[in-house]
Design brief:
alpha/beta, six-stranded mixed beta sheet, 14 strands
């Protein structure tokens, strides 16, 4: 880890800043402009406060708040002013950034994409992700269709970005690790009832895959909802090595030693779970068993996933939360 929360950065590390940005209320283009200005000011603050910071990471809903509004007037496009401003800020301040936008979806006028962006210090878009698992039945977003991409981040560290509810599915973290991710970024808009599950899953995702997790939520209140902040960095052993709180706009900084995860995955014996999933019982069987003994995996691939008692599940859409019955296939 970098000493003193990034104040004494080490050349063997990259430093990640998790910004617990203010939960805002955005319903008009003017609100969106004010939210963008706030985020841009926090990028500048991050660089001033931590001159050696490698990446600044913002929560899901950093611009749009938790209203779930889908009005085209406040959606953002990759070629629009919001993304252009974020690119310019990263280039100006020579810092990587992880950001959140709600994006128009040509497949559905009423169900935008919930999109994550990573921009490098040259202002280039290097990762584009659409949230795979919207938080149903509350969120109206269209389920992502790009899988879990990975990218090479600062210091050559391989990373992946998932969003909020995604992290409750262990398959998401495993997929990222399987594709080489050494750091799993998780950005969220979660409120306080999810605090315990947030920590449990962040720690489990780290330990079960021998990788760092770097996670952050919005903070503060918009007068209706109270977001929790709770930034945290977890080590590959599942320890919380940096922890935030509920302080609005606080930047929680943690370090990742370059090459550490690759070394652990190469050298560990016991609990090298990512490898051992595909090498079962290699003490008894040469090379280990490499079959798939998991019914749910086979059923999911074959399009016949069905949990026991599925016919009794009552909440199957968002009607109870005020949304219309879905019509998209």
């Amino acid at each position: 880890m970098s000493t003193l929360s990034g104040l004494n950065p080490l050349p063997s590390h990259i430093t990640l800043g998790l910004c617990q940005s203010q939960l805002l209320s955005t319903s008009t283009p003017s609100d969106l402009s004010r939210a963008l200005s706030h985020i841009l000011s926090l990028i500048a603050k991050a660089r001033r406060s931590y001159p050696s910071l490698s990446m600044i990471i913002f929560p899901e809903y950093m611009l749009h708040g938790l209203s779930m509004r889908t009005s085209p007037s406040i959606l953002c496009t990759l070629s629009g002013r919001e993304v252009s401003a974020l690119k310019s800020a990263c280039q100006t301040h020579q810092i990587w950034g992880c950001f959140s936008i709600m994006e128009p979806n040509p497949l559905s006028e009423t169900a935008p994409w919930n999109t994550g962006l990573v921009i490098n210090s040259s202002g280039d878009l290097v990762n584009y992700y659409r949230k795979l698992h919207p938080w149903v039945p509350v969120e109206p977003w269209y389920p992502g269709d790009l899988g879990v991409p990975v990218f090479t981040g600062p210091g050559g560290v391989v990373m992946a970005h998932i969003i909020c509810h995604d992290g409750m599915f262990p398959e998401m973290a495993r997929e990222a690790a399987y594709k080489g991710a050494e750091v799993l970024i998780r950005t969220a808009g979660y409120t306080t009832p999810i605090r315990n599950a947030w920590e449990v899953t962040n720690r489990a995702n780290a330990f079960c895959n021998l990788m760092y997790t770097a996670s952050v939520c919005l903070a503060g209140s918009d007068g209706t909802f109270d977001s929790m902040g709770e930034a945290m960095v977890c080590s590959p052993e599942g320890e919380v090595v940096q922890r935030g709180d509920a302080q609005v706009d606080r930047i929680v900084v943690g370090g990742v030693r370059i090459g550490e995860v690759k070394e652990m995955r190469r050298e560990w014996g016991v609990e090298n779970n990512l490898f051992q999933l595909g090498s079962r019982g290699n003490v008894a069987v040469e090379g280990g068993k490499r079959d798939c003994p998991y019914t749910y995996m086979r059923d999911l691939v074959e399009g016949r996933y069905r949990q026991m008692g599925e016919e009794e599940v009552r909440v199957r859409d968002g009607v109870g939360c005020g949304w219309e019955e879905p019509t998209s296939k």
